[in-house]
Each structure stands twice: as structure tokens, then as C-alpha cells.
Target: MPN domain-containing protein
Amino acid sequence: MGILVGTSTGKALKVVDAMPLFHTHALAPMLKIACMLIEEHCREVGDLEIVGLYHAAASGVPDMSRVKPIADKIAANFPAACVWAVDAAKLGERQFALRGMCHSKEEWKPISADAVSLGDEALQHTSRAISELKHLEIVDFDDHLGDASLSWLNASLFKGDALAELGPADLPQTGAD
Model:
């Protein structure tokens, strides 16, 4: 599970970074500390805020129920919040493997597959990074709590990788309200 940070122009939501938090269940005190640090990071970077979260279940089924209370808290502070769940069945098919929900008019609504586009280049590089097991190098907030020398910001994770060079047109875009 992790937090998404980005910007909003009213009609468009732009997610610019994902902050990995926990690879196990989230405990409220640690989640609160993590969110405080992320908010501080957003202030330091400037013009960013917490806009949503992402998660994956061990079962591989994209179900929002276990993160709904956290998503509701994010939506209370950012009304256009989004939640993205990993759909493990699509990972092996080299398809866009996320299912999204957006907060609109006090309820969570699915983001249709038609509203999301992903450039071929982004899909290729993401598939390559997964096959290279690059995800095993990710440091989450949980790891940082165990060893403070590890940075949960992962600033150098894709340094020199073609994924870092992709522009906004190559990344996932949504037409959600």
C-alpha cells in the first residue's frame, strides 16, 4: 500500500509520484506518521498534495474494502481523491494492471477502462522492469522504520532507466471527473 501525490487543476488530476508505505497491514500510528512526512515532503517540493492511494491484496483481487477507511480520510482532505488497486490477473498479460476508483459526490465510483490510456512505451518499460524484478529494490516506509538509512522516497530507483525518461504523454491518464 502506498500514497499517491500530485496536483489538481479542477478537471484533471495529475499523479506525479507514488510513496510506498507498507508491504504488510498498516497500523494507524505508523500510517499517521507516514502521511505527516509525505505532507512535509509535498510542502518542500512545492505544489504537491496527497491525492490518493494504491494497494494490492495478497489474493491478487482488486478489492477496496480493506483500504476504504484510509481512502475516505484522504477524500475528506482532497475531495477528488483516487484509489488504484493492482489486478494481478492482468500482470501476466502485459496489460494495464490497475483498477481505479475516484471519489465524486461523497461516493467511490469506478474509473472505466476507457478513461485510462497507457502509452506502448510505458507498458514496455514497465513490463521490462517487472521481469527484471526491479520492484524488489523498492524501499517502503516499513523498511525505513527498520533501517533509517534506507530512503522511502526511492529517488534513485529508476536513475538512468528509460522509465525515468518517459514524459506525461506516455504515463497513465484518466478522464475521471
User: Anything to note?
Assistant: Residues 10 and 130 are 33 Å apart (CA to CA). The longest helix spans residues 28-45.
